[in-house]
Design brief:
single chain; 224 residues; Porin; eight-stranded antiparallel β-barrel; two-stranded antiparallel ribbon; 3 helices
């Protein structure tokens, strides 16, 4: 027994890493910080089916080609419009946790909405002419979220955001092109959101508004 103890003492002095390796590993693992301790959140995501997708074509001033009966040198009647199409909304944002429940921040998003207007010049001319409309929407909102489940790797929350949407509208005809800018209200209501991960994680959200009904993306949280 005495010889065994002496051998262990010699090994511990000669090769200390053999005895300290596991302790060091455990210490490293314990330094991983909970997402609840990281108060700053930078995120980016994609949203599908924004409210603009359901409200139909964007309205413009009375002189805009899709709102008047004269464009490209033609007077026309009985216009028909296709349903607006869009690949979705891309966005990015930042949030700052005030405490374990409330966080505030901002979001910026971009969406491209397209539709086509078809018309004939007169009842005696069956030729169909088209105006291709393109509304590029840039939305910025201030947002507050309320967390009701806050664990080291899981966060569940709801939120609301209010802001503005800038509509960069453009109409392209056979001859002329006309552009116009308009302001619309913007906002997003998040009925339920779920973030998973520690510093680096992902999130999914369900709600409705300027960004979409279903949103998902990546998130990076960091301390002060």
């Amino acid at each position: 027994m005495k010889k065994t103890f002496i051998i262990l003492m010699i090994l511990s002095v000669s090769f200390p890493h053999l005895f300290g390796q596991n302790a060091g590993t455990k210490e490293t693992k314990s330094t991983k910080r909970s997402q609840t301790e990281l108060y700053n959140d930078f995120y980016a995501g994609y949203g599908a089916l924004s409210i603009f997708y359901f409200t139909g074509r964007m309205k413009h001033s009375s002189g805009f080609p899709t709102e008047t009966s004269h464009f490209d040198g033609y007077y026309y009647s009985s216009p028909e419009y296709t349903e607006p199409t869009s690949p979705g909304t891309i966005y990015m944002g930042f949030a700052r946790s005030l405490n374990r429940v409330v966080s505030v921040g901002f979001m910026f998003g971009y969406q491209d909405l397209k539709y086509t207007e078809s018309f004939t010049k007169s009842s005696t001319d069956p030729t169909v002419y088209q105006i291709k409309a393109d509304d590029q929407l840039l939305t910025g909102i201030a947002r507050v979220t309320f967390c009701y489940l806050n664990r080291p790797t899981v966060r569940m929350y709801s939120g609301i955001g209010i802001g503005l949407t800038i509509d960069f509208g453009k109409a392209n005809g056979d001859v002329d092109t006309k552009s116009e800018r308009k302001l619309w209200p913007g906002g997003q209501l998040t009925l339920m959101g779920l973030r998973f991960g520690r510093a680096f994680g992902g999130f999914v959200e369900f709600g409705f508004g300027s960004y979409g009904i279903l949103n998902a993306g990546l998130s990076y949280k960091f301390a002060d």
